[in-house]
């Protein structure tokens, strides 16, 4: 290993500081031209995202099985309960029909009691985060 003399170390250090001082990589101004509809769409998306909060809500699973049967179960449920929203998710190997978007467990259990009267294998779930 080669040891630099004191004068060479000082010279290299000063050279590095001088070069680093003159670097101006982030000094440019950038002008962005975008369609005004983009901002409107972005604001609409933000509103929708704040209204959908699936991680903090309870849902009721009313069906688990094949795709066509899941679609039929969801259509039947929506026909009977237009005020409760529902969705189909795929969880290998079954399609599951989840209904409701209940903020509290008590509210979900009240609806569960009503839904149990019409569907046989129904249970309450809280989707994981």
Automatic annotation (TrEMBL):
Keywords: Signal. It comes from the Bacteria. Residues 1-25 form the signal peptide. InterPro entries: SPOR-like_dom (IPR007730), SPOR-like_sf (IPR036680). Residues 52-129 form the SPOR domain. GO terms for molecular function: peptidoglycan binding. The keyword Signal applies. This is SPOR domain-containing protein. It comes from Flavobacterium pectinovorum.
